[in-house]
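# step 3/5: fold
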Amino acid sequence: MKTALLPAGIMGWLLAALPLLCFSQSAVKKKTGKKPNIIYIYADDLGYGELGCYGQTKIRTPHLDQMAAEGVKFTQHYASTPVCAPSRCMLMTGRHGGHSYIRGNYEFGGFADSTEGGQMPLPENTLTIARMLKGAGYATGAVGKWGLGMPDNTGSPRLQGFDYFYGFLDQKQAHNFYPTHLWENEQWDTLRNPVINVHQRLRDDETGDAAYNKFKGKDYAMDKMGEKAAAFIKAHQHEPFFLYLPFTGPHVSLQAPDSAVKAYAGQFPEQPYRGEKGYASTLYPRSTYAAMITYLDSQVGKVLQLIKDLGLDDNTIIMFSSDNGATFPAGGADTEFFNSNGGLRGAKQDLYEGGIREPFIARWPGRIPAGSISDLISAQFDMMATFADISGIAAPPSDGISLLPAMKGNAAGQQQHPYLYFEFPEKGGQVAVRIGDWKGVKSNMKKNKNAIWELFNLREDVAETKNVAAAHPELVQQLEDILKKEHQTSHLLEWEFVNPKLIKNK
């Protein structure tokens, strides 16, 4: 049973962590011409090594590779946490894991349409990126996977600053790329797909194409998202717009249009996947996984081309990243075969590099130098400050910094984080801190609230194989001091795993 924890001073904490929007048009910096359009594209469970421009050799991603060639590629950029819903919350609110209102995948309801309940919703009047930009005169849209509330609660996208939403509201529904419905604002949009139970494994007597075809439909979710994203851009091409585009690939289930799978079939050794580790069965699991990433890439290509066709290229910044690292072994996804996390340790659900280090590409012709690379240590909770800078408004309080100087190649003018803080209450309870080249990790803190730190030098050991904590007690103490400073008590008992003795004198 889920248990609420209401610590003393919670209202003050909420006000500090999630301030209400108080911006007015007077806060907007006066600029000549139309404010720049902002498009932020977000993949789902895409690993650091799954794009060609980040070293991938088996999966084709020509449009994202071209986007990197025409813009800047960040090499030390992090998701705020290693799973879906809290990562999206931290992106939207500019808060790290020790301050965020949502810190884990807190589920309501079930997988069936009749029990669709979504995840823990954002509180009323949360200061989101969308609300901030709406106050600055932007049309705001979100197309893709939300995971932060439903139409019947405070987390509905249109109650959180978005003028328009289309896609999955409940991330459990997003396990199926051929759903019976998606949501358009608060309305159910019926698709031409049968009811598919993607979590039902095949029986021993189910063989042949028919057994696998029952996991297919007519309307592929990413196609519908691409169509709605294009419609939003066209509808708002004459005014500043912000489009948040969290596509659902390559999160399992392994499902892709037949034409996309055929483009890879026969290139890899593979055996049919029959649902042994959950999610939909498929005849060609490796080919399907590769196809999903290439299909995502093709959707990015369509956005890039549309912006060019509408004459918006020079006044539109387009960014791309992912919510967390590639999946752990599940649903037939063979991320080891593809070196999905680029040789980094860990995967989704881990605060090791493989769970949180992500691709981050930004393209803005004439403003961002083509083919540039930034080694700036940064995180997705920096996006609120970055978007404020791009739009010419004063940045609200957050845990982030603007990355715009680094994007533009102005290393001397770029603010630096003294450290990055990460906190994740699932998979045993984990904390991580990045200080320059150093990275500290604590694990299994729910069982051992006094768990010791592991310490790694990422410049010399990016795979985090050599724990050198014993040789650097002064750094270990610094990590402990940062933990004491950055952890704020959660409103949920399930998310509170840090030793209270560490923060009693805070």
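# step 4/5: annotate
The chain is about 25% helix and 20% strand.
# step 5/5: archive (pending)
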